[in-house]
Amino acid sequence: MSASIPSPEYIKIHHAHRQFMTPEGGIINALDNISLSIAQSEFITLLGPSGCGKTTLLKIIAGFEELDSGDILLDGQSIIQQPAHKRPVNTVFQSYALFPHMTVGDNVGYGLDIAKVNKVERNQRVAEALTMVGLSGIEQRLPSQLSGGQQQRVALARAIINRPKLLLLDEPLSALDKNLRLQMQLELKNLQTELGICFIFVTHDQEEALTMSDQIVVLNSGKIDQIGTPDEIYHTPKTEFVARFIGESNILSGMVISKSENGVNIDCNGCTIFSHDQTLKLGEEVKLLLRPEHLSLTPNELEGPQAQLTMTLNQTVFVGSDYQLHGELSNGLPFSALTRKTNTPLIKGQQLTLYYQVDALHTIPAKQKSIKGHI
Ligand SMILES: Nc1ncnc2c1ncn2[C@@H]1O[C@H](COP(=O)(O)OP(=O)(O)OP(=O)(O)O)[C@@H](O)[C@H]1O
User: Fold this and answer.
1) Is 5 part of a structural domain of the chain?
2) Residue owning the nearest CA to atom 5 of ligand 1
3) Which amino acid residue places its CA nearest to atom 24 of ligand 1?
4) Is the model's pTM score more than 0.95?
5) Measured between alpha carbons, how far is 45 from 168 in angstroms, rounded to an integer?
6) 243 and 363 in contact (C-beta within 8 Å)?
7) Which UniProt keywords apply (predicted)?
8) For residues 132 and 124, what is the distance between their CA atoms, to the nearest angstrom?
9) What is the CATH number of the domain that holds 75?
10) Ligand 1 center to 145 CA (angstroms)
């Protein structure tokens, strides 16, 4: 028997629109006519700042909230008329939401008890689900006898036991401390791969999104700014909003002032930056993105062709093996760079020559639109 091919459009969110009235009588477009497709067995993250619409979208998929217009299709079938408990979808919340008076076994087996699955199969599936989340043999404990990380694993076991087609995760790791959070990020990704089902994960933590996701959807005021792999979102952001939201960035506004066969010179208020982007036109206004790791005090730390600019140093921050340099360019604009530890003293007010990796310079059109996109 041949394995089935995962559908690239397993979940389709089609022109989803949802408004809310504010207490002051205003209208908020929590979801502003968004469309996207999600492949089967994909780990997708909805990422964006507070209030951008992440939870609203998750609640609509789960059936806890309704659309004003648009549709949600799962495997070709619209699910928006189905009540939440009939959808093949489960949700894991930040707060775990375990029943405190019930044992771990009863919490995990709850959905099977409701579905009247026989005791032997039920106990076997509870044990399997707990093993999958790395907690075998703790069926008799109460939630209060577990750590936060263990409680979140129990919540996960409960959510996967009835084999949903889709798992929704609403900031499930945000109550955990940093180390546990990093460990659980990897565990969640492994669990998703093992189960082979689609996970839709909500977070406002960009590092978490970059670590775990196959695809990231960046939401900005109810609209999608970009859909892409972590690599695409980090290295080739389509909008200034995405560039600023993901990772450390230096963003400069400029205009193309000259072109040659090697590239273009862009004037950023008196500071000239060289780019290899031959698609830029003379006179075009652009935003330039330079990540701190693509800048250095010593040219041989960088790969490929380099150019240079001058920065006046305001502050040096030691971050492990590197220094973060904060200062301003000759045009007075703030600028940051990351550089390896150096024997040269770094003194406040000093003028530094910074080398940048020309190929890593990313240009964004000055005028951008949000997308109604498809993966
Ligand atoms: N029931 C509601 N009534 C009125 N406004 C709402 C309601 N639910 C959400 N909103 C508004 O819709 C917008 C999107 O909210 P949503 O909770 O989806 O954002 P979010 O990205 O999940 O934010 P957070 O990260 O803070 O949870 C916000 O402006 C919010 O205030």
Assistant:
1) no
2) 20
3) 50
4) no
5) 10
6) no
7) ATP-binding, Cell membrane, Membrane, Nucleotide-binding, Translocase, Transport
8) 12
9) 3.40.50.300
10) 34
Q: 269 with 346, same domain?
A: yes
Q: How far apart are CA 166 and CA 61, in angstroms?
A: 10
Name the residue range of residue 228's domain: 11-244
- ipTM score of the complex? 0.97
Residue 209 CA to ligand 1 center (angstroms) comes to 20
How many alpha carbons fall within 13 Å on the CB side of residue 193?
9
Six-digit token string for 38 = 């999600």
CA distances for 240 relative to 117, 119, 162, 252, 364, angstroms: 52, 56, 42, 10, 7
What is the tens place of the pLDDT at every residue in 276-298? 988 999 999 999 998 888 888 88
| Confidence check: pLDDT of 373 > 50 | no
The residue out of 222, 244, 266 marking a domain boundary is 244
At residue 242, φ and ψ (nearest 5 deg) are -65, -45
CA angle 201, 100, 108 (to 5 degrees): 55
Report the nearest atom of ligand 1 relative to the CA of 56. Answer: 18
